[in-house]
User: What shape does this take?
Amino acid sequence: MSTAAYPDPPLTDGVVALRRWTMDDAPQVVRCCNDPEIRRWLPAIPAPYTMDDAVGFISGAGIGPGEEWVRLAIAEPGSPMALGSIGVRTISAETAQTGYWVAPEARGRGLASRALVLVSRWALRTFPIARLQLFTDVENPASMRVAERAGFRREGTLRNWYDLRGERRDAVMFALLPEDLA
Assistant: This one.
């Protein structure tokens, strides 16, 4: 996977469009990443989230050597307003991980599930990966529903899997394999 390997043409299903981030999106990223529900579940989001953080996110700052990411804005087709974020990153030679968040005003509309379907099918068709995974906090049923609606299979609970601002948390692991799409 390469950060230059963005979907071309951009991914859409007629309800959701996934596009590259632009610096015009920075104020929306700041607003959303300061939302308590988003910060509640995402360990990598600084608190408070600043304009510098948003510019770094959009420009790809913080992506280390050997890490490869594709970060996309979730939007409605034809709208310039970003309603969320979804990304795919490699974590080993044949494994990638995805994650997402959705703006408060866009929740409950199925946008995250639609975006996850689009990006996961694209990633499994485009890159030589044998596994696309995601994890959610055990107390985040909305994110679990997103994963299940997109066809990801629940694999189990990982105890003390991640650090959420100094607290070790359990997570539920989900995966989608190429053969799951057959």
